[in-house]
Amino acid sequence: MQTTTTPPRLLADQQTEAFDVEYVIPQLWALIEPHLEPRLARPSRFLDVGGGNGIFTDRVLDAYPQAEGVIVEPSQTLRERNLPRPSKTLVSGTFQGAAFDPRHRFDVIFFNWVLHHFVADTYRQTQALQLPGLIDARNLLAPDGILVIFENYYPGLLIDDLPSRLIYTLTASRLLKAFTQRLGANTAGVGVCFHSLHAWLNKVSQAGLTVEATHPGYRYGTLSPTKRLLLHMRNAEVGAIIARADA
C-alpha cells in the first residue's frame, strides 16, 4: 500500500495522553454529516486513521448502524481505551505500516487532526509522509468514497505556509525539547507539521483528489500576540476538507 518508506516519528505514551479526548464537537459534526449520510446510511465501511480512544468511531457507528468501522492507531494506551463492539475493528500500528486488503475499500476515511502528526526527521521528509499518506488514502477509497480531513490552519502573515516550517523546526528539535515543552508544545522532541488551508488544499490536489467542500469551523487563540508574531502566524482556525478521488 505504502508509497513511501520514510519512517514516521511517534509520540511517547505520556504524550498521547493529551489526545484522550474527542475534538469533533456537535458544531463540527454538523458540518460533515451531510457528506456522511449518502455514504454510510447503508452497508458500508469507514476508516478512522489515528482513531485513538474510539469515541469518534463509536459516534459514527451509533449514527450509522449499518456501517463497519476500522481504527488504525499506533498508541497501545489509546487502543486499550476503546469499548469493544462487533462492528469495530482495531488495527495496531501506523497508517503507513498497515496492510489493508485493496479488495475491501472504504466509503469514508477520516483524518481527524492526524495529518499534522505525520512527521519525520526533517521537514522535507515530513512532506514525504503527508502527501503520500493522502495518496495511499485515495487508493483505499471505494467509488464515490470521500476523505474527511479535520485540521488546524495556521496561515502566515506575509508568507502563507511559513508558520508550518517554523513550528516544525521548534517542536521537532530534540535539543529544544525542554524549551518548547515549557512553551506548551506537547509534541516537543517529536514534531508537528501544521499547514495553512491553502497548503493543505494543494496537497489534496497533488494527491489526485478533488475537493468536494471546505467548511470553516471556528477560530481560536491560545498564543499571545508576541508568540504569533514570532511564528509569523496570522490566525488559527479549525476547519474540514471533504475530498474525493478524481474520476
CATH class: Alpha Beta
Q: Main β-sheet: number of strands, strand sense, barrel status?
A: 7 strands, mixed
The total of beta strands comes to 7
Question: For the CA atoms, what is the radius of gyration?
Answer: 17 Å
**CATH T-level fold name:** Rossmann fold
Strand order of the largest sheet: 3-2-1-4-5-7-6
Q: Strand portion, in percent? A: 15-25%
Please give the share of residues in helix: 25-40%
Spatial separation of the terminal alpha carbons: 20 Å
Secondary structural class: alpha/beta
Which runs of at least 5 residues are low in confidence (pLDDT < 50)? Answer: none
Number of helices: 9
The best one-word shape is globular
Helix-strand string: HHEHEHEEHEHHHEHE
Q: What kind of assembly state do the chains in view correspond to?
A: single chain
Detailed description of the structure:
This protein is 33% helix and 23% strand. It is α/β, with parallel strands linked by helices. The chain has a single domain, classed as Rossmann fold (3-Layer(aba) Sandwich), CATH 3.40.50.150. It has a seven-stranded mixed sheet, with helices on both faces. Strand 2, helix 4 and strand 3 form a beta-alpha-beta unit. The protein is globular.
Give the topology, please.
Blueprint: H1 13-16, H2 26-40, E1 44-49, H3 55-63, E2 67-73, H4 76-79, E3 88-92, E4 106-112, H5 123-139, E5 141-153, H6 162-172, H7 177-182, H8 197-206, E6 209-219, H9 225-230, E7 237-245
Parallel strand pairs: 1-2, 1-4, 2-3, 4-5
Antiparallel strand pairs: 5-7, 6-7
